[in-house]
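for the recovery benchmark. tokens below, seq after
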């Protein structure tokens, strides 16, 4: 019972941290600050997503990958350095296409890849990868999470149909902070 209580307390604290990050993002104006907040979101998403058994393997690592131009610089590596979620540490990698991204747990698709979104997301549709983007049309193309900058605030949009198709389960606590998109994902 004490272990369950401690896990619940940690989860509640993580939700508070994620919510305060979202509120804090509203005060940000620079591109650097925007990507610091987005890096924090990517780290925190790992706390609120369950992958199917065996996806994380026994390596003890959660791979956060960046596809396209890297807007984070070293911020993403600095954000996850030395941190763990459920005993799993993080590694940040750059990937060049959807096939390479299939070994990632979280994939950030840079806005530089907007013209290739359909092909990239099509390769990952059932691959158990939490796809995160920042482009208009990301959700409509089948992305799972879109971090939309609107009026100086980062809004979280979640395509629950795409999450289901990818086999990732998103916590109701994260869903409560997001705009839920029920866009049907078209198999391509």
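predicted aa per position
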């Amino acid at each position: 019972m004490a272990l369950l209580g401690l896990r619940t307390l940690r989860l509640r604290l993580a939700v508070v941290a994620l919510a305060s990050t979202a509120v804090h993002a509203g005060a940000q104006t620079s591109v650097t600050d925007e990507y610091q907040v987005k890096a924090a979101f990517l780290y925190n998403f790992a706390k609120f997503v369950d992958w199917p058994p065996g996806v994380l393997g026994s390596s003890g690592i959660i791979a956060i990958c960046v596809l396209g131009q890297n807007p984070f610089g070293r911020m993403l590596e600095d954000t996850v350095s030395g941190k763990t979620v459920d005993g799993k540490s993080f590694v940040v990698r750059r990937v060049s296409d959807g096939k390479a991204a299939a070994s990632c747990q979280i994939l950030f698709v840079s806005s530089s890849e907007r013209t290739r979104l359909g092909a990239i997301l099509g390769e990952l549709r059932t691959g158990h990868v939490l796809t995160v983007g920042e482009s208009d049309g990301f959700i409509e193309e089948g992305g799972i999470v879109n971090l939309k900058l609107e009026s100086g605030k980062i809004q979280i949009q979640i395509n629950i149909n795409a999450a289901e198709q990818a086999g990732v389960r998103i916590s109701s606590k994260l869903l409560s902070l997001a705009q839920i998109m029920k866009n049907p994902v078209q198999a391509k």
